[in-house]
Amino acid sequence: MSALPKSLREELENRFYTPPCEIVQTLVSADGTKKFLFRLQDGNVVEGVLMKYKYGNTQCVSTQVGCRMGCAFCASGLNGLVRNLTAGEILGQIAAVNAAEGGTADARAVTNVVLMGSGEPLDNYDNTVRFLKNLSEKGGLNISLRNVSLSTCGLADKIRRFADEGLPVNLTVSLHAPDDEERQKIMPVAKRFSVKEILAACDDYFSKTGRRYIFEYVLIAGETDGKASADALVSLLKGKPCHVNLIRLNEVKERKLLAATDKQAYAFLGRLEHGGLSATLRRRMGADIEGACGQLRQKYIENGEEF
Ligand code: SAH
After folding, report:
1. Closest C-alpha to 72, from 193, 211, 223
2. Binning pLDDT at 50, 70 and 90, where does residue 1 land?
3. CB 195 within 8 A of CB 229
4. Separation CA 287–CA 91 (nearest Å)
5. Where do runs of H (alpha helix) occur along 4-60?
6. Cβ < 6 Å from ligand 1: which residues?
7. Catalytic residue among 21, 47, 89, 242, which?
8. Model confidence at 303: pLDDT above 90
9. 46, 63, 81, 116: residue to mutate for ligand 1 pocket, most atoms within 8 A of CB
10. What is the pLDDT of residue 302?
């Protein structure tokens, strides 16, 4: 508003707060899960999800507009990376949802946070770390970092650096295949870091933080859901201080991949458990509201919707 006198602009800036993220759309699933579309001050949009569990409400936040990792099954990277989010924009997503859900500083409506929305958090390293420190501030949202999970596609060098930050965050790594060859077919980042390097970085994380790590494994029909993959995963991870979280693929219309059937998913889970791994099959939530990463933003871009 450069037409206004500078003194008035300064006065306005001192007196009023402009939120970094504004909720422009809310979709509510039959299971209670909510999906939010946030508009940033520069007009870009990112999305987030709030999942309601017995023990509290978990918000999934984005760390980048778009993503440059290019995973074959994911909607976030369809148009590449637009830009990193600032620490304030990452925190702003939580502040906005907390307020929209009627939460206060004392009784928060958001109790847990997962960095599993659009973007690769460790590719936006400094802002992500700054966000985490701000999130746990006593005078702020005061959310314990023990209730926070950071998910990465496996940037091994950054995992090691993150281990030295001394933040008690749960580390989650998107493995999605038991070996380099299979992984490279669906995740371009697998050409930069081998499974071996990733496991070594996770062990480093465990020895420095004492925290067990989690592997995410997406079940794609005919690609990652076979018996041989399950057995290879058992040999790879047996004895490690880790848990495996299986996720049925959330089908993305621009991608040709299909979800594993429930039968196949339970058979895969059974093989992992039989092999001695700690594993669970993630409950499907919000499938009716474009639950998967980047789907809602993609729709917004395609439709050229105005809010
Ligand atoms: N960049 C980070 C975090 C974002 S995605 C990472 O790669 O971990 C959070 C999780 O959702 C990742 O495990 C990701 O691989 C998975 N994911 C992305 N698209 C998906 C889809 N269509 N169906 C199921 N899981 C998906």
Report:
1. 223
2. confident
3. no
4. 25
5. 6-15
6. 71, 73-74, 116, 120, 151-153, 174, 216, 218, 247, 249-250, 252, 292-293
7. 47
8. no
9. 116
10. 66
CA–CA separation, 110 and 303 (whole Å): 31
Q: Percentages helix, strand, coil for the chain, rounded to the nearest 5? A: 35, 20, 40
What 8-state DSSP symbol labels residue 244? E
What single-letter amino acid sits at 285?
Answer: M
Note if 120 is an active site residue. Answer: no
What residue type is 9 in one-letter code?
Answer: R
Total residue count of the chain as it appears in this document = 307
For residue 144, the SS3 value is coil
Q: Is 19 helix (H, G, I), strand (E, B) or coil?
A: coil
**Residues 67, 76 contacting (CB under 8 angstroms):** yes
Neighbours of 306 (CB within 10 A): 6
CATH 3.40.50.1360 fits 17-302, yes or no: no
Nearest CA to 156 among 198, 203, 209, 216? 198
* Known catalytic membership, residue 47: yes
Report how far residue 209's alpha carbon sits from residue 163's, in angstroms, rounded to the nearest whole number: 7
**What pLDDT does 296 receive?**
66
The pLDDT score that the predictor gives to residue 188 is 97
Domain chopping of the chain, boundaries: 17-302
In the chain, % of residues over pLDDT 70: 93
Q: Express each pLDDT in 163-207 by its tens digit.
A: 999 999 999 999 999 999 999 999 999 999 999 999 999 999 999
Q: What is the CA radius of gyration of the chain?
A: 20
User: Considering only 66-70, 152-156, 289-293, which range has the smallest mean pLDDT?
Assistant: 289-293
3-state secondary structure of 121: helix
Burial of 260 (0-12, 13-18, 19+ CB in 10 A): buried
Tokens of 58: 């978990």
